[in-house]
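User: Here's a chain of 403 residues. Predict its fold as tokens.
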Amino acid sequence: MSIEGPSIQPEELNPYERVIGGAVKARRLISAHWELTYRCNERCTHCYLDVFSPSADIPDELTTEECLRVVDQLAELNILNITFSGGEILARRDFFTIAEYAHSKRFLLRLFTNGILIKPAVADRIAALHPYEVELSVYSTRPQVHDAITRIPRSHELTLRAARLLKERDIRIQIKTPLMRENATELPALRALAQELGARFRRDVTITPKDTGALDPLKHRMSHAEMVAVLRDEIDPAFWLNRQMTDATRTCGIATKGIAIDPYGNIYPCIQVRTAAGNVRQQTLREIWDASPLWEELSHLTLGELPVCRTCELRTLCLRCHGLARLESGDLRAPALVNCQAALARREVLIEKGALPPDYPIPAHLREYVQHLCAEPNQGGEPLPTNFIPLSELLPMRAQIPV
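Assistant: Prediction complete.
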């Protein structure tokens, strides 16, 4: 069972984690998340991308030769690992040309795929890459639910076929599931399925708007009651109660150790923050990493720079994402409702378990939202409040921040 908030102390970090910590302090790039294409053979209803048909002609995509040059530049920067994702990575006919070249440069490779195109010969070529892990998305133990989300008949069957083919070749696999209204009650069954397949399991409670700003995926977000039910069985009270947050705390590692690359060569701080630091068609990766002013701007995004979050009573219960904040409000420094929802659910579970007092405060910017939950506790889905961050609460908090 995965535990919400594993209690790991700095002295308990393994050698790899200590290396990563040192690299962050030295501002050395460690990883690249590379979206090779936005073509996909699934049409997942919750996806943050507007994907193209697998056969679509997309002239702006990086060519094979350009991709190989990017691999060379990643090697020059001594990046340790590359995650190849999409869309669907196998929708690129030159995927193995790119991946095999990256393997020859001794990168640790992670592959994100839906597995639909993985047959024995494809599984053999994946095995030859010696990937650290292949991650497969499974949305339900019930084929009809999974297929309704992907909108592709037999996708559940074909994804599980891929998992078995990969496991037969001793490839480490991970089953990952975004938890939604459709599958929130299936968590134990999904864990059991992963165990049966010999896979690791990871769940995610975050459903985001599309990168275009469209809110369609949010209809899949779990209700507050469903979120509480998920966290109730997993949460580690000691982790959250001992978590320390100061004005100097960074809520994520943005701009410190990783980059994201899209199919057109744009370089982003991460998958969620779609502000380009540059493009590999105009500059080298080293020039972008060394010279883009975006990194300096983002390096100051500590808790003290977040006008609402820095004073929030739930800050130690929150796993905040700057990118989600920007998607929801257009402001990197604003709260993200999806993170606030999870923090509220943790508050409720910790009160149930006696780890927090029953009157543990609710932040001012969430009181209206909580009143809404209390007014309609049995509804199937709560709409987003139109004034989630009331200006009456936001402006005084901004005034408290020293210039």
